[in-house]
Amino acid sequence: MNHTYDIVVLGGGPGGYVAAIRAAQLGKKVAVVEKAALGGTCLHKGCIPSKALLRSAEVFATLKQSEQYGIRMQGEAEPVIDFARIQERKKGIVDELHRGVQFLMKKYGIAVVQGTGRLIGPSIFSPRSGAVAVETPDGETVTLVNERVIIATGSRPRTLPGLTPDGEWVLTSDEALELERLPQSIVIVGGGIIGVEWASMLADFGVAVTLIEAADRLLAAEDEDVAREMAAALRKRGVEILTGTKVGPDSLHKRAGEVRLEAEGPNGPRELKAERILVAVGRAPNVEGIGLENTDVVVERGAIRVNGWMQTSENHIYAIGDVVGGMQMAHAASHQGIVAVEHICGTAGHPYDASYVPRCVFSRPEAASIGMTEAEARSAGLRVKTAKMPFRTIGKALVYGEKDGFVKVVVDEERNDIVGVHMIGAKVTELIGEASLAKLLDATPWELGSAIRPHPTLSEALTEAGLAVDGRATGL
Fold it and tell me: Which residue, of 79, 144, 150, 224, has the greatest Cβ tally within 10 A?
């Protein structure tokens, strides 16, 4: 059985379903192939469920600190974690959003084909590669012939030799999201975004956390000032952080009730003991098993190579999201999907540019950034000037009870353009949108600082940081 579409999207995550919606809006006949549930990793195993857990952890931490806000628990009562209820809340949020995606598919007349899809080569159905053969759950094969195909197959958690996830002792974020109870202790291997978020969450839940990172600091892709502040904040909350520390393929030992991990750090070998190990060393693009061998699509360093319009080496085959590597974030995938579809339809504005994609860490404190770090700007040969505005000078931060952190602006002094904005503190993942707009509009520090922002708000830190670049901060 075969069906014909203008565009077939292989994968129904935030890149795939957004691409499908945009294509339908532009009058295309569209099908989405999804082997699991619409929404992909972000909705079911990543962004949304992890943020739901992080929110519960934040509420619990706030309750434990309620006396600083003048709120006392009556008697000897202490807040208690009901982890089953926390997981139930998480599932409810995911289910509600899943229904929303399903509604949008129906609203726009997008065909959703359940099953495992593979690209096939030239055949009687199509003179060129790119048709998609779908093996459905009932064992049938459906062929989707198309003019264009968009690969949006996402990614999976990376693992390390000797630390193979077993769902019991060694976990990835996939298994950790489904825990039925919190462990008493955990070792997290990997100090990037995922590792830091889980360290923050579990520490707030009262778990003893040890965080290992092979590099010399956490959040290696972020500005050094942000990384330093994040490490200090986590240590203050009891997280043990071991940087410059590696684990070998034979370092894991399981015993009744605990896991032992041999680590090698700057001060020599050390044995770490915990109830669980979480491996958080990034994500690997899903390029296997999707039929790329039947095409001339090029895979480099484990990811599909694309140009700025998200075209592969076969210009009728596009790829978006985690499968192309780079900035593996849901909002990047969604934007790439729109770029690809509008290019297909002849309405494209600008090619994808990763420098315009904001990066967020939803820990406590949060971190957010866009553009170059100070070190990257200097390495690029720019004459750099910077300004840093601490939140402790901002009234709303004191009211909120989270005065640590700052906003840092990195400027190309020659052109007076903002090339990077970096934040750490309460709710900065909400503030980074302003910096994203400033970057899009090629704003100067003066323009960032001249916008009138309401008082008292955390956004005033952006005003002060923009003015501080030229020594004009008023010290609100």
Answer: 150
d(CA 281, CA 234): 19
In terms of Cα–Cα distance, which of 173, 187, 347 is closest to 262?
A: 187
Q: Is the dihedral of CA 234, 237, 242, 247 positive or negative?
A: negative
Digit-coded pLDDT (tens) for 194-215? 999 999 999 999 999 999 999 9
Other Cβ atoms within 10 Å of 362 Cβ, number:
19
Q: Pick the catalytic residue from 316, 331, 343, 455.
A: 455
Q: How far apart are CA 268 and CA 61, in angstroms?
A: 35
Statement to judge: residues 375 and 455 lie in one domain: yes
- For 233-271, the pLDDT digits (tens) are 999 999 999 999 999 999 999 887 899 999 999 999 999
Q: Which of 330, 354, 378 is the last residue of a domain?
A: 354
> Within a domain: residue 110?
yes
Predicted confidence band of residue 76 (pLDDT cuts 50, 70, 90): low
**372 and 234 belong to one structural domain:** no
One domain, residues 213 and 113 = no
Q: 139 by DSSP, 3-state: which?
A: coil
Residue 98 catalytic? no
